[in-house]
Amino acid sequence: MPAETAPVDAAAADIAPVDASPAEAEPVDALPVETEPKPSLQPGEGRESPPAAEDAAYGSPEEKIIANYLASRNIKILFNGAIKLQHQRASTTLEMRVSIPETNLQWLEDRIILDHQGTLKGSVAKRALRRVLDYGERLRLAELAVPLFAELSNAEQEIADGNWLRLASIFKGDVDLTIAKIRQFFWLVKRKVSGERVERHMMLIVVSSKQGVGKTMFVDKLVSPWEEAATGPILITDVTDARSADIFRFPIGKVDDMEKVPVDKIAVLKSVLTSGRMRRRKLGTMGSIDLRQTLTLVGTANQSIHELVEDDTGHRRFAALEFDSVEGEESNERIWSIVNSIDYRLLWRSVDIRFGPPIGPYLNALAAEQRKGSLETDLLAWLQGIDIDSPEFLAIRIKGAIGASGLYELFVTQTGSTMSQTAFGLKMRSYSLRDDVPLGGRRKTSESNTYLIKPKNAAEPLT
Description:
alpha/beta; Rossmann fold; 3 domains; four-stranded antiparallel β-sheet; 13 strands; elongated; disordered N terminus; disordered C terminus
């Protein structure tokens, strides 16, 4: 893997998100596989508090007063807008701990106004504070991002390669494709943060139908080098809602337990994933604002992407990772021993954004994988369209129910599906609960396994 460099100036605090342009719609080969490297970055030292007033970032005297005030008190501005008191001594008693003030924006405004009575007017102080905080947030993003663009030494590259292989081993599917999916997610985040053009937009989704595997904890570890520059848990509806604006300034959006996307919102979601800029409604007004879209989504789900996003046009904007786990603590222990051993910061640094999208060479493999996944939704469509009273189904009826083996064989015969009988049975467990599927739960007897036929109206008992 090539060593990492990045087109970002380490000294520049104002990291601009990617801007939409006509070039964004160019085909994948618009980015060369290899280009002339741009000047590399070295890890930044970061700042413990906003820069001193002489840093020329602050144009007004009021801004300089507030910047010096924050610096003198070791108040650090985090990217998510949180305010942190640096070097705060740990409390040793419960009484001391509960007496620590909540250091939010209102608290900070009050402290500044009270400590500068006669020097700053309240309204002026608030406006100046907002500008200082905005600049502090951008500095914080630079502090988090710059080290993740640092080049790897040869020894570090070897370690990173081993980490990639170990990480891929906990997921089902081809190892190279699995690595490419995660690297593509990293590449998108870093390209957007550094202001570079982006191709092959994609949402990464960690999938497992089993509970307690640790999907959310894994995603938290995966994005941990970005700290608070990754959002807290958000919903897909937050992304598609025209009133949502603030989340799009974050580099990473974490969608926990992704819900089914309403059919009328699928196009909206795909548009958000691929947009460089967008208009969002300004709260409290009838107007809207134009903003940069810097967000790259990563999520968790209990269902396949084909079930969550029922889109006949395809699922190329989504890439799934499915844990290779079985029932039992031993399987989970194997996964977590690997997850906990990975150096995620090293993996982020190993993704070189000077070159084309990592998923590029694997698009055919990704498409084939997604076609295989679509077989499950083919089953749902088939079940929704069957005629229980047709000759084919009458032939496999057993005491007023439908034989399980006969149903599977009929499905394979009529659709040409390669789905295994075990996978068929597992899918039938969830599909039989749907109102639009005419077959109910599975009934097991000493003679056979059957699926109950649902009544045609609520007044009829199950057959």
